[in-house]
Inverse folding.
């Protein structure tokens, strides 16, 4: 029976999942499949590569840099987060903190990255075959928040954040052969997502990408339904939801180091739940 882990992302709130994943590395807990959405894809890449602490450095150190995320980036490049700086300049083999691509490739853990085709509004599931040394386009595509970032093009196709099409890909994990799944949320389990912000962002991309805008307007409902489904699977012993009891003041684009450290510590402590779930 395959075990899977899903990291739903959530911008800088993703540091909670970093704590959980570092706990798993310390305890030598591995999974047969990892599915990453948005920032969750980068979290899982470092985890599968066995690079403990790498994600923490990106959130609490590099994430504070203007080159990483800033209004200046948005003005100059139409992307608040500079995906090429994060996933190329910093992450390539000659970068400041390279992703250990060889370790990622050699680890038998399957890896799926969720992105949204901006033109069709359909989900695209990248896997290890789409990830090559110094070509981490799948992470860039999966993390491109509509309007906040411009869509990221791969072979002529524009992609947006995977959360707008499959924010909690439980069914994808089960269809991939998993019998038990750990779900990493970055907001409290009982906090429903609202659609107000998504409606505003959808209006800003509707003219160029109407299908993606439609999916963005539906994201809150899809996320809430996904959490409800995960709760049902949890009752059956097929899923474990690991979520913070509060977000410590960290939001999608906020970058307070002290708050992020508190949220990371919560994740590390909550990681212990996984050991008993997997037995």
């Amino acid at each position: 029976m395959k075990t899977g882990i899903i990291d739903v992302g959530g911008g800088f709130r993703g540091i909670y999942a970093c704590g959980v994943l570092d706990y798993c590395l310390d305890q030598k807990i591995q999974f047969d499949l990892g599915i990453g959405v948005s920032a969750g894809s980068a979290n899982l890449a470092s985890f599968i590569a066995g690079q403990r602490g790498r994600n923490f450095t990106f959130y609490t150190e590099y994430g504070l840099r203007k080159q990483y995320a800033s209004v200046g980036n948005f003005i100059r490049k139409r992307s608040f987060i500079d995906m090429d700086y994060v996933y190329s300049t910093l992450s390539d083999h000659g970068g400041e903190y390279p992703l250990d691509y060889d370790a990622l490739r050699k680890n038998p853990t399957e890896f799926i990255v969720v992105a949204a085709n901006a033109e069709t509004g359909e989900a695209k599931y990248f896997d290890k075959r789409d990830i090559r040394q110094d070509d981490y386009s799948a992470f860039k595509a999966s993390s491109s928040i509509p309007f906040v970032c411009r869509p990221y093009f791969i072979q002529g196709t524009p992609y947006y954040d995977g959360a707008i099409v499959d924010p909690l890909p439980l069914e994808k994990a089960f269809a991939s052969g998993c019998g038990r799944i750990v779900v990493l949320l970055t907001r409290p389990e009982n906090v429903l997502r609202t659609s107000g912000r998504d409606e505003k962002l959808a209006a800003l991309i509707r003219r160029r990408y109407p299908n993606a805008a439609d999916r963005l307007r539906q994201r809150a409902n899809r996320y809430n339904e996904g959490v409800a489904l995960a709760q049902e699977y949890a009752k059956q012993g097929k899923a474990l939801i690991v979520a913070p009891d509060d977000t410590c003041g960290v939001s999608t684009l906020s970058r307070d180091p002290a708050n992020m450290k508190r949220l990371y510590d919560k994740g590390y402590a909550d990681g212990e739940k996984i050991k008993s779930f997997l037995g």
